Amino acid sequence: MQLNGRVAIVTGAGGGLGRAHALMLARHGARVVVNDMQADAAERVADEIAAAGGEALAVRASVTDEAEVAAMVHSATLAWGGIDILVNNAGILRDRSFAKMDLADFRLVVEVHLMGAAICSKAVWDQMRERRFGRIVMTTSSSGLYGNFGQANYGAAKMALVGLMQTLALEGEKYGIRVNCLAPTAATAMTDGVLAPEALAYLAPEAVSPGLLALVGEDAPTRAILCAGAGHFAAANVTLTDGAFIGRGDDAATRVAAEWDRIADRRGESVPAYGFTQAERELASAGVTAPTMAVQR
Questions:
Q1: Is-catalytic flag, 146?
Q2: For position 202, what pLDDT does the model report?
Q3: Is residue 124 part of a domain?
């Protein structure tokens, strides 16, 4: 689990989960770019790392600003030779029920979580491909995986990150790039007022970071969704049931409704290796042989 010589960027690392991640990566030998929108917060975490004998670079940058992200990656590359690990942790909340939610707040949350992660990942992608090594972690959430009242914007962005992870993992596989998701439960500024006070003591951000370490090491998995909180770890999957062949015809809709229990039966469900698995199986059930679409473009 040692990360000696590795260079990591942690976004939103001025406090909470990002700070815990940055400190743990540094303790295991990584040189850490501590990114935050608040320069003084980033500096404090970088100072903590340095005081403990590690190496850190504090960078104030917005993950939604392509020029600032590019400058951050350039500075770290000049200082340390390249980026090995990217932890897309930065995020915000704008919780309201969908009926009361302003679409500007919907866009803002998607912009920070989804586009911020895409911008940062794009900024390191080419050099990771060239160096044939990379570890990228997206921060998803149970709100995206399973839904939470009042978090339509946050949940949509967090589930979108799972889709981004799935595709980048496939595209990066032959280049040694492994991409995963971490779904944390932790007491941070973003969860103030969401969790009961008696629960907060168990949900320290530091209890999540060991899971992050498993996702960025030499033997890290890829395409994993790791749920972590209070020292408990579990894997989530997007699955596909065996389903049922209904066929076409004027009464197909009626038969779909009639066969719903069989279509939704979770016994024998699988985790598809790639998205076109669905179409391959659908065509096979209709007696059509389709060429595999699991190709490297």
A1: no
A2: 84
A3: yes
